[in-house]
Structure formats: structure tokens, C-alpha cells
Design brief:
This protein is an all-alpha fold. It folds into 2 domains: 248 residues, Cytochrome Bc1 Complex, Chain C (Up-down Bundle), CATH 1.20.810; 106 residues, no CATH class. Helix content is 65%, strand content 2%. The chain has 15 helices and 2 strands. Strands 1-2 form a two-stranded antiparallel sheet. The longest helix has 32 residues. It binds protoporphyrin IX containing FE. The site of protoporphyrin IX containing FE has 30 residues, from α3, α5, α6 and α9.
Length: 395
């Protein structure tokens, strides 16, 4: 009988060899926690979004006259169209929950030190945000239209070039049919680029292997991916699929905006324009700065600052497992993120503006300083400890 794992068979079949190295014999640290499920869950989210998205695109019409009604048609007439759309909407939220967990895990355990993995990951985050923003415009509801108008207008803050850039992105003098058309094209294409970027992300990861909750070099404590993490990832998949099904079937409008049940009307601005929950923290940072260009720069920096994290690291050990003070700071950072998310949906008035400014300051101060906050602790504990050998140090 053909043995799929046999050396000669794998050597003669490069695809089999790749699969084997990717999910079968891949060496993995023995102590990976549930937080290491987030990566495979992100892969599952991407697949769910691509599959449901393709079927939705079959029935969707990217034209300002028809877009809104084509979505109504999907919900009412297309066989199981409602479940496709509900899953696609819910999938977007779960995707962001997984990605924020994935990044939080990376910050807490110092995984950003795998700099190529981290850099490709940050690019994946930017692509995901772009895809979600473009997708939200497609149903052509009031919030789609006005959200697109507010966000594209931010480009006008760029000195000299701004106004021309906005018209270029719109393909006209306002958010219009050309805008909807190109947004649809890019919303369709970007997930496939993310697929390619994910392949690079994993190739970089498998160069050195995974980090682990202790941040110590895992050395000999290595087990094969199959069956251990294969089964653990399957448990994660079942939970995620159960959550998607639950929300899609029982409360699909949980986080959606009622304004989007109204067809886009350029003559009537909603009193309160706000993005979906996953963009609220960035929106709060944008509004916290009382200057348009300053706000746009701060909002952009709030995400792109992740690119800098590998260079900011000064601690001796990887991760925060051995740094109690850093752990407290991490939880304060996380809370600043949650508070900003709340403030993104609050009106721009006292005291919300002032709290946003404070939370923005804390957010930036901590994300920049967290990788170096262990320095005083290092001088007391780790600096001259003979037990901390070269393999456990990050420098
Ligand atoms: C579509 C988005 C993404 C997908 C599909 C994805 C996929 C994965 C997978 C499958 C793993 C291995 C399993 C694990 O460690 O959880 C992983 C690891 C990793 N990812 Fe991502 N990822 C994505 C986004 C990101 C982002 C946004 C970042 C950071 C900004 C990031 C940073 C990392 C790092 C540093 C690791 C290594 C973790 C460690 O070994 O401790 N990834 N990713």
C-alpha cells in the first residue's frame, strides 16, 4: 500500500511534501495555549468570507440604481441567499475578533520579534481593514454612502494633493456609480491578495517556528503538529463555526446599523455617522485630535505603529510572562482600546472628547513603550543571572 508519509513518496511529490511540512510533521512547541488557535481561525475566516462572497457576487449588482435592491433580492428571493449574506456579515465581525486576539497575543508574548511574520501580518491587517471598508459600501445603504463619503474625504487633508486625490478615488465629483464600481472590484480582489500574503506569512513563520507562552526557546520540547495541534485547531473551528451559525441564524443584525435599511440618499445626511464596531477605536482617535490632518495622521499611525514594534524591543526576555509590571501595562493598554471603541460611537462633545484624548495618549504611550518596559526589572532580576542563557535572551 502507498504510504503517504514515506520519504520517497514525499520527495517525488512536492505538493505532498509541502502539505506534510505544513500540517503533519511540522515541529510545534509542546506548550502552545488556546491563543495559538487564532491563526488557523483567521485562515478559516478568510475561507468563509471568500466562499460566501463569491456566491453573493453572483447575485449582486454594483450599480447605484440596483445595488440596494440586489441585496434585498439576495435576502428575499435567492435560495439561501439570506444565509449567505448573514454569514458574510457575521464572518466580518468574527474575522476582526480573531485578528485583534491574534495581535494581542503577539504583543503579550513578544511574537513581534519574528519580524518578517509580524510585518506580513500587519500588512494583512491593513488589507483586511481596506476590504471591510470597501465591502461596507456595497449594499448602498445610508451608512454605506455616508461612511464612504466621510472616510474618502479624509484624503483631502493631505496638503496640495488632497482634493485631486479625493476626486481621483471617487472617479467623479462625489461618491457615485464609478466609486461603487471600483470599490466592488477591489473588494473582490483584495481577499485573494490576502490569501497570497497569508502563504508568505506562514512561510516566514515556518522558517523559525512558533513562539510559545513562556517565550523561552522551546529547544527539545517539540511535538509534531499532527495529531496534537491538528485536533486542537479542529476544536477551534467547531467553536467558531458554531458562533457564526448562532449569530447568523438568531441575531444577524447584532452589530449592524439600522440606517443601512434605508437606500443611500445624497440629499439627506444621517445625524450620527459611525463605522462598524471594529473601526470605532481608530475613529475615536481620528476625532480626538482637533485638527483634520493631525487626526488623519494619528489614526493612520494607530495601526502602522505595529510595523515599528520589532525595533522597539529592549527587554532581555521575549514576551511578558516574566514581567509582572509589563503585564499590568498590557491590560491598561487593552482597556484604552476598549474605551476608544466605546468613544468611537459617542457624540463629539464634552466629556467624550476629553476622555478620547486621554485614551489616545495612553494607547500611543503604551504601545510604543511596552516592548521596553521590562528594562528596570531586567537590571534587578535577569541581567547577571547565570540561568538565563543566550538561547533564552532576545538580544
Ligand atoms: C488574515 C490574517 C492572518 C492570518 C490568516 C494569519 C495566520 C497565522 C497563522 C495560521 C499562524 C500560526 C498559528 C498561530 O501562531 O496562531 C500565525 C502566526 C503569527 N501571526 Fe498571523 N495571521 C494573520 C494576521 C496577522 C496579523 C495582523 C499579525 C500581526 C500584526 C500577525 C502576526 C503573527 C505572528 C507574530 C505569528 C507568530 C506567532 C507565534 O509564533 O507566537 N498575523 N498567523
Amino acid at each position: 500500500m502507498l504510504n503517504l508519509k514515506s520519504e520517497p513518496f514525499r520527495k517525488s511529490n512536492p505538493m505532498m511534501n509541502l502539505m506534510n511540512n505544513l500540517i503533519y510533521d511540522l515541529p510545534a512547541p509542546v506548550n502552545l495555549s488556546i491563543l495559538w488557535n487564532s491563526g488557523s481561525l483567521l485562515g478559516l475566516c478568510l475561507m468563509i468570507q471568500i466562499l460566501t462572497g463569491i456566491f453573493l457576487a453572483i447575485h449582486y449588482s454594483p450599480n447605484t440604481e440596483y445595488a440596494f435592491y440586489s441585496v434585498v433580492h439576495i435576502m428575499r428571493d435567492v435560495n439561501f441567499g439570506w444565509i449567505l449574506r448573514n454569514t458574510h456579515m457575521t464572518g466580518a465581525s468574527l474575522f476582526f475578533m480573531c485578528v485583534y486576539t491574534h495581535i494581542g497575543r503577539g504583543i503579550y508574548y513578544g511574537s513581534y520579534l519574528r519580524s518578517m511574520v509580524w510585518t506580513s501580518g500587519t500588512s494583512l491587517l491593513l488589507s483586511l481593514m481596506a476590504t471591510a471598508f470597501l465591502g461596507y459600501v456595497l449594499p448602498w445603504g445610508q451608512m454605506s454612502y455616508w461612511g464612504a463619503t466621510v472616510i474618502t474625504n479624509l484624503l483631502s487633508a493631505i496638503p496640495k494633493l488632497g482634493d485631486s486625490l479625493v476626486s481621483w478615488v471617487w472617479g467623479g465629483f462625489t461618491v457615485s456609480n464609478s466609486t461603487l464600481n471600483r470599490f466592488f472590484v477591489f473588494h473582490f480582489i483584495l481577499p485573494f491578495m490576502m490569501l497570497a500574503l497569508t502563504a508568505m506569512h506562514l512561510a516566514f513563520l515556518h522558517d523559525n517556528g512558533s513562539n510559545n507562552p513562556l517565550g523561552l526557546s522551546s529547544g527539545m520540547n517539540i511535538i509534531p503538529f499532527h495529531p496534537f495541534f491538528m485536533l486542537k485547531d479542529m476544536v477551534g473551528f467547531v467553536v467558531l463555526l458554531a458562533c457564526t451559525t448562532f449569530v447568523s441564524l438568531l441575531c444577524p443584525l447584532l452589530v449592524s446599523d439600522p440606517q443601512n435599511f434605508i437606500k443611500a440618499n445624497p440629499m439627506s445626511t444621517p445625524t450620527h455617522i459611525q463605522p462598524e464596531w471594529y473601526f470605532l477605536f481608530a475613529y475615536a482617535i481620528l476625532r480626538a485630535i482637533p485638527n483634520k490632518l493631525g487626526g488623519v495622521l494619528a489614526m493612520t499611525l494607530a495601526i502602522t505603529v505595529l510595523y515599528m514594534m520589532p525595533t522597539l524591543h529592549r527587554n532581555i526576555m521575549t514576551g511578558m510572562s516574566f514581567y509582572p509590571a509589563s503585564q499590568i501595562m498590557f491590560w491598561i493598554f487593552l482597556n484604552s482600546f476598549f474605551i476608544l471603541t466605546w468613544l468611537g460611537s459617542a457624540p463629539t462633545e464634552t466629556p467624550f472628547t476629553e476622555i478620547s484624548q486621554l485614551a489616545t495618549l495612553i494607547y500611543f504611550f503604551l504601545i510604543i513603550s511596552i516592548p521596553a518596559l521590562g528594562k528596570p526589572w531586567d537590571t534587578v532580576i535577569f541581567q547577571n543571572d547565570p540561568h538565563i542563557n543566550a538561547t533564552n535572551k532576545t538580544e
